[in-house]
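Hi, here's the filled form for the chain we discussed.

Project: internal
Contact: R.S.
Residues: 584
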Amino acid sequence: MICVNEYRTHLCGEVNETDIGKEIRVAGWVENIRDHGGIKFLDLRDQYGVVQVVVYDEALLNPVNKECAITVTGSVVLRDEDTINPKIATGKVEVKAASLTVLGKSPSALPFEVETSTETKEDIRLKYRFLDLRNPKVHDNIVLRSQVISFLRSKMEQLGFLEIQTPILSTSSPEGARDYLIPSRKHKGKFYALPQAPQIFKQLLMVSGFDRYFQVAPCFRDEDARADRSPGEFYQLDFEMAFATQEDVLSVAEEVLSETFAKFTDKKVSPAPFPRIPYEEAMLRYGSDKPDLRNPLEIIDITEIFETSTFAPFKNKTIRAINVPGCASQPKSFFENMLKFATDELGMMGLGYIKVNDAMEFLGPINKFIPDDQRQPLVEKAKLEPGCVLYFIADEKNAAAKLAGQIRNELGRRLKLIEEDCFKMCFVVDFPMFEVDEETGNHIFTHNPFSMPQGGMEALLTKDPTEVLAYQYDIVCNGIELSSGAVRNHDLDIMIKAFEIAGYTEADLEEKFGALYNAFQYGAPPHAGMAPGIDRMLMLLTEEQNIREVIAFPMNSNAQDLLLGSPTEVTEQQLREVHIRVRN
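And the returned structure, exactly as it came back:
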């Protein structure tokens, strides 16, 4: 696996019983030093594992501290039976040191112990990321990242896709997030922008006659950090297909993602085809366009049953309900804590519920507000059975859906209903093309503005904009959005009309998206694509809760690179060269 040289003949993790009696050289970092009465034991670590080194001559260890880099020459011997370590691959042998050379010194006091670095404050970890990355768990995440990306590339090539790089220095465009701007030295007062995605370029590649494109693409967005979103930079498996339909793209995504997850996890992975769930259905049944299908609970709409209700919280409201089988046996504290979650965490006025006993009688706080003529329809609609609990969520339509989804998630978590040993994937499809801006009352795009409306020009001309669906789709895994994509709007007339509905003139379209506006006049083919997020895939595969754990050199949650110290101030001369004056 390695070239034999003056530093090592063997990797630390590959020394084994077949090497007993051989003189070898190993190199790595000193993970631990143990003094056993004149004999010292070093745990020597490289990327491939750990081997124990025994040092009888203390002079060899001057100066050796934890985390210094060393090379050791010595003979391989069998460990004493009572010192065998079955937890590591090299646990039956050790290297008896004849010579030891320090290759890279390390101070006696470290900012944190590498073995427990994940327990250290994140900003300290990121400042000394080169040490943090020596932690085997953190290190293995980055090794896995490399393996996953390599597999993705191989799979895409197998499916006939060409890897093509697109520019990093691009132009600012309204794609939903803030751009990172780069001032131009040669063109005073003008700026480049880092691409939020290769969106325009990959569409231009389709117009250029390339049939199947992909790249492991860096994307740059000036957004606030979240647990599943890195500020600044992230990577996606970006791909696009010419002469393709929505189903063509979904089929590729199914094959690539199911095989990737199956290769890098022992958990069960959804077999293809993944469920296709329309957006409206997802919002109704799961209260989210990112449904976690590991949770068996579903939401139902019971608004019609209570249309004549005089119960104030139900009047003129959308009413959603969640049937939780077997929940009636939960202690009083369970219901009190769910109420506290609803009021304190979600800002709800309350959380009504009824219990159903063995005689199919209703019990609970809002039982008295349910008239007799509404009880049997409720039993049938909600499929109530003895021992179940029915939770009620009432609000205006969008809020009711969102709140019901959050209650569903919390019930699944508290009742331990979520399957932990699987990855369940689905596509959410048929997103609305437009929505009404609450502040202005104008129609705006809800998703990608370059998507093809279902029904084409006729739909744009004859339907209320909020009723127009788009060929847009997301892929969701365990409640996390891995990717969004769309069938692109390649017809310039349809695009002009779609942007007109969203408040743009044709002149705006030509100015802001001039490349597409021009290219689509020269035989643009139908095309479609998507871009699964690589960082989020790795979060799922490693079961990490924070996306920064799967990125080699991430920024912190405040968009700072604590290792290199960016963002930094620059000199006045540098500012003058790019025609920038900083205002205080």
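Let me know if anything looks off before we file it.
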